[in-house]
Specification:
55% of the residues lie in helices and 19% in strands. By secondary structure, it is α+β, with helices and mostly antiparallel strands. The chain is elongated, with a radius of gyration of 32 Å.
């Protein structure tokens, strides 16, 4: 009986005549087209959020920040750093002093975040060097007057390696008087993180130099810590760190707490996008309901004949429910497959589209004898990451498939109620 039911459902799904298969294939196409953007949005937003998050925690906030509530001597900083380095859970413990300043060259100027770091940071921290790409020169902070600047700062101040840049900082005296200080640096390297917000903000100078020129109330020192797995529960690590520190003198902050508002905004935006895409999928799935109504109407005669042969309403109804499931499952598989291909090849697709668009723009400028403009980039680094990794989660793909399958079968429950109203006698009278 089950075999007969499946055979009849498949025959109905395939359609013995072309006109009977049109509504089903229309529903399959609608579901497939609606699932493609859903898959792309889910994994693209995940990749984008993770890419930005990793850049921040590997190069900016680090995994943990330890901030003293009172001033410490250099010897105390070194002692604490040595003690923390003995903890097995920590892979990196570095002191950083940071503040704000005004960088300028001639009449050009830009507000910057000055980060005074240990000169070994770039060479010894794999996570940092992974996301800080050197475009010109090198990340060389061995000389006290060296500086490494972001790409956007270099562009706004028209700087290249070897140029001289001045940074205005200041010192606030106990009387409240502010004394400005100008420091001259030689640009030793230009970097990019692939994220414009960071490239237009950061400059790196040697730690010793930073401790001398960044002495206003806005500047501060911290111990930047990295752990083995920053996405794991950090509470046990924080508990071990507390044992090393003097509890009353330090504040310990995880990257979760430091980036809470940013992460909240990302997740809210992502949920809104997924909700919109899910509603589109739901509408497409509901289209199956109208397809089933048409199928029932077109097969009234066959339903009447089958009833006269002794088949009950339950058996005939299940035939249409399974057919709806086949349509939903097929559309879901097609949509998931195409969406996954777009996700996996997303960076290459964007690069290809950039090339094609810029080719035609260049061709247009040549034919119309116009001056060429800057190349167009679909993923402008002002708003997006230039490049990021995307990985598929097959659990999520499985949930999408099963949800679509279930919704498709539920959508068929409305039209199959008409099957119970069809009687063999009515069919004989009509035909």
């Amino acid at each position: 009986m089950k075999s007969l039911l499946l055979d009849m459902s498949y025959r109905l799904f395939k359609g013995p005549r072309k006109r009977e298969s049109r509504p089903i294939f229309g529903s399959i196409t609608g579901i497939a087209l609606s699932i493609i953007p859903l898959v792309v949005v889910i994994f693209l937003s995940d990749g984008m959020i993770r890419g930005i998050t990793e850049r921040y925690i590997e190069t900016g906030t680090f995994h943990l920040q330890l901030r003293p509530h009172e001033s410490l001597s250099d010897d105390e900083w070194i002692e604490i750093q040595n003690n923390l380095n003995e903890l097995e859970q920590l892979i990196s413990v570095r002191r950083e002093h940071s503040g704000t300043g005004l960088a300028y060259k001639g009449d050009l100027q830009s507000a910057v975040s000055v980060r005074a770091v240990e000169k070994e940071l770039f060479l010894e921290d794999e996570g940092f060097s992974r996301y800080v790409e050197i475009l010109e020169g090198s990340f060389d902070l061995t000389d006290k007057n060296n500086i490494v600047i972001g790409r956007e700062i270099a562009a706004s101040l028209n700087l290249k390696t070897g140029d001289t840049i001045r940074i205005l900082t200041g010192k606030t005296l106990s009387s409240g008087k502010y004394i400005p200080k100008v420091s001259k640096f030689k640009v030793q390297g230009i970097f990019t993180t692939g994220y414009q917000d960071l490239d237009k903000m950061w400059v790196f100078i040697p730690l010793e130099k930073g401790l001398r020129i960044l002495q206003d109330s806005e500047s501060s020192s911290k111990m930047a810590v990295k752990v083995i797995d920053p996405y794991d529960d950090l509470n046990p690590v924080i508990a071990d760190v507390r044992k090393v520190l003097d509890k009353g003198r330090w504040g310990i902050y995880s990257w979760h707490s430091l980036n809470r508002s940013q992460q909240s905004n990302y997740q809210t935006t992502k949920l809104l996008l997924i909700l919109i895409m899910a509603l589109i999928v739901l509408v497409a799935v509901m289209n199956i309901s109208s397809s089933m109504i048409m199928l029932v109407m077109e097969n009234e005669q066959e339903i009447g004949i089958l009833k006269s042969m002794g088949m009950n309403n339950r058996f005939l109804s299940l035939q249409y429910v399974f057919t709806a499931g086949l349509a939903g499952g097929t559309g879901s598989i097609i949509g998931i497959t195409l969406g996954s291909l777009i996700v996996v090849r997303f960076n290459q697709i964007i690069s290809f589209l950039d090339t094609v668009i810029n080719f035609f723009i260049s061709l247009w400028h040549t034919l119309s004898a116009q001056i060429e403009t800057a190349p167009v980039s679909l993923l402008n680094s002002q708003y997006y990451l230039e490049d990021f990794s995307i990985s598929l989660d097959f659990h999520i793909l499985g949930i999408i498939f099963l949800s679509t399958l279930l919704l498709s079968m539920l959508a068929a429950l409305i039209p199959i109620r008409n099957i119970g109203k069809i009687t063999a006698l009515d069919i004989l009278r009509k035909h």
